[in-house]
Amino acid sequence: MSAAMSAVIETEEQSALRAAVAALGRRHGVAHDRDALWAEAGKLGYLGVNLPEEYGGGGSGMAELSIVLEELGAAGCPLLMMVVSPAICGTVIARFGTEEQRARWLPGLADGSRTMAFGITEPDAGSNSHRITTTARRDGGDWVLTGRKVFISGVDLADATLIVGRTEDARTGRLKPCLFVVPRDAEGFGRRAIPMELDAHEKQFELTLDEVRLPADALVGDEDAGLLQLFAGLNPERIMTAAFALGMGRYAIGRAVGYAKERQVWKAPIGSHQAIAHPLAQAHIELELAALMMRKAAHLYDTGDDLGAGEAANMAKYAAAEACVRAVDQAVHTLGGNGLTCEFGLARLITAARVARIAPVSREMILNFVSHQSLGLPKSY
Ligand SMILES: Cc1cc2nc3c(=O)[nH]c(=O)nc-3n(C[C@H](O)[C@H](O)[C@H](O)COP(=O)(O)OP(=O)(O)OC[C@H]3O[C@@H](n4cnc5c(N)ncnc54)[C@H](O)[C@@H]3O)c2cc1C
C-alpha cells in the first residue's frame, strides 16, 4: 500500500491495533476503574505506541496513538490524559529533550507508570497564548518560575506538569516561549481544583507558580526555538482531541442505534422512522468524514510535515468536535426520557462533548486560523 493510501485506509497493523484496543475497551466498559484501565493499557504498550522504541515506546506515530484513544472512547472509557501525557509531553521530550531527559521520562510515559500534565492556558491570556505571562528568570544555574495557569487537567494525577512559560531575551528584552518540567510537589507550585460541571475522572486545576525554583535541566529543548517546539506538541494535541471526540461520538451513536432497534412504541421499532434514522445516519457520516481528516493530519505529522499537519490537525479537531456534539445531541434525543436518566448515562456526555469544541483551541480560533492561513483573509484582531 502506498504511503498516501495508508493515510486514509489503515494498514493491517493499524487495524489489528484497533481491534485489540476495542477489545480492551469492551472488557473495561463505561463504569470501570480508569486508573486500572490506564495501567493495563500502559502495560500492553498502547499508551506509548507513538514514543521511540529505544525508550520503551512502540516506535509508531500519532496515527496509532489516535487509534488507541478513539477506540477506548468508542467503548465508553476514554483516557483524557493520553492527550497530554504521551501525545504532547512525550512528543516534545522525544523530539527536543536532552538524552538525560528522554531517559528519565520516556520509559515511564510509555508504559503509563508516570504521567505528565501540560499547562499553557492562563486566566488573562485565554485563547491568545501569545499573551501568556508566566515568566522564568535565571538565578545562578537555576530557573525561577512565576505565574498562573487555569483549567490544567490531571495535575493531581501527574508526576509533573510541562509548563509553558517565557524567558526574557537578554538582548532585546522580548519574551520567548519556553517549556519547563515542574514536579508535582515542587515548592511554590500550588493547585486548586476548579469545580466543573463535567462528569469526568480527570479534574481541572488553577495553578499558582510562586517563585518555583527548578534546576537548569528542567528546561526542555532549546531556549531559542520555543515556538517551533511548542507547535510540535500542539499538533498532536489537536489530533488527539479529534480522536477523543470521535470516540465519544461513536459511543453515543452506538448506544442510540442499539436503543432504536429495540424500542417500540407503535407497530415498529423507533429506528424505522426516518426522523430517528436519518439524523443518526447523518451523524455517522459526519463522524466518518472527521475521522478521515484526522488520519490525514496524523499521516502528515508522522511523515514530518509539521506545517501541513498544522492545518489538517486544526480542521480535524474542528470537524470531530462538531460531529461529536451533534452525535451526542441526537443520541440523547433518540432515547426520549431515557436520554436523561442516570441509568442510560448519555446526558452526561452533553457537557463532555462540548469540551472538544472549546479545548485546546476553540472552534472560533480554528475558523480564524483557516480564514487567515488557508484563505488569506485579513485579521480583525
Ligand atoms: C475540560 C477542559 C480541560 C482543559 N485542559 C487543559 C489543559 O490540560 N491544559 C491547558 O493548558 N488548558 C486546558 N484547558 C483550557 C482550554 O484550552 C481553554 O479553555 C481554551 O483554550 C479557551 O480559552 P478560554 O477558556 O480562556 O476562553 P477565551 O479565550 O476567553 O474565549 C471565550 C470565547 O471567546 C471566543 N473568542 C476569543 N477570542 C476570539 C477571537 N479573536 N475571535 C472569535 N472568537 C474569539 C472563543 O472562541 C470562546 O468561545 C482545558 C479546558 C477545559 C474546558
Describe the structure.
- With 381 residues, the chain is of the alpha+beta class.
- The chain folds into 3 domains: 113 residues, Butyryl-Coa Dehydrogenase, subunit A, domain 1; 107 residues, Butyryl-CoA Dehydrogenase, subunit A, domain 2 (Beta Barrel); 148 residues, Butyryl-CoA Dehydrogenase, subunit A, domain 3.
- Helix content is 51%, strand content 15%.
- The protein is built from 11 helices and 8 strands.
- Strands 1, 2, 3, 4, 5, 6, 7 and 8 form an 8-stranded mixed beta sheet that branches.
- Strand 4 and strand 5 form a beta hairpin.
- Helix 5 runs antiparallel to helix 7.
- It is globular.
- The N and C termini lie far apart (45 Å).
- The mean pLDDT is 94.
- It binds flavin-adenine dinucleotide (FAD).
CATH topology of the largest domain: Butyryl-CoA Dehydrogenase, subunit A, domain 3
SSE-based structural type: alpha+beta
CATH class annotation of the largest domain: Mainly Alpha
Q: What is the straight-line distance between the termini?
A: 45 Å
DSSP E strands, number: 8
Order of helices and strands: HHHHHHEEEEEEEEHHHHH
Indicate the low-confidence ranges by residue numbers.
none
Largest sheet entry:
8 strands, mixed
Number of domains: 3
